[in-house]
Amino acid sequence: MAISALALFGALTIAAPSLAKDQVQDRVIDLSDIRTVAGVMMQAGYKADIKKSDSGREYILSGVNGSGFQVQFYGCTNGTGCDSLELYSWYKKQPHFSLALANEWNRDNRFLKVAIDSDGDLAEYIYISAIGKTTYANFIDYIEWYAAMDASLGKFLNEKAAPAKTEPAAAAPK
Length: 174
What we know:
By secondary structure, the chain is α+β, with helices and mostly antiparallel strands.
């Protein structure tokens, strides 16, 4: 049975929008280049401003859940790009931030990790290898995981802060 040219054209016309979407989702991107990463983030609807730190290192400033985060690049060399990147933000020091709190979060959460820095602030981060290439969909999935886990971390920190706020202060000695 032969397929008419008109029937084939009609089938391709109907399938074309989904083919185009799949091609965008599956296109291969190079995460070792900051400008490529910023462009991909903007195409996905995220803010992606390239900034320079005081030391002259470039990073991307973006945001999710009403809070800013940075995309920092590591292992960068002229001409070959960077070998990894990190989605990163931090919470200013709070009385309930502790190594035990960080360990509790890290024990139960795979992707987004936290650490207490030397100032007592809580840093959150996801590392991504930039060696080789990845797909657009895979990279955007990292950002979406970051956004979801950032919201979960905020809820976790609020729950842990509540008991600290309700504990009565110790009575002053007489």
